[in-house]
């Protein structure tokens, strides 16, 4: 049972929120535009693992989940607070893109925590159009 640790007064879980995964991440993106457009020179590019001005790629998100699993591989549950979809260029904003983002992040969570109960919540970037929840 996921909450069996409560009998002992303690339960370990992860709370993951606002992942904002950018499935369209480009290493050549401009960090001044949340990596949504091409950077004019290499000093403004996020590189493989991104930049704090930009949403993370799926590969960066996977590395984060891997590290979480190394620290606590069997949490009682994962509370997933929503806002999965990244801040992408307007031409990439669509219901299929939002669904693809949800599937990708859910798949990454399942890969690293295959037996863990996942408790999702909707965020304002988890619907199309935005803020429709």
TrEMBL record:
Write down the InterPro entries for this protein, in alphabetical order. Answer: Metallo-depent_PP-like (IPR029052)
Gene Ontology molecular function: any one? phosphoric diester hydrolase activity
Please provide, in alphabetical order, the Gene Ontology terms of the cellular component aspect for this entry: extracellular space
Q: Please provide the record's keywords in A-Z order.
A: Glycoprotein, Hydrolase
Return the protein name: Calcineurin-like phosphoesterase domain-containing protein
Its lineage reads:
Eukaryota, Haptista, Haptophyta, Prymnesiophyceae, Prymnesiales
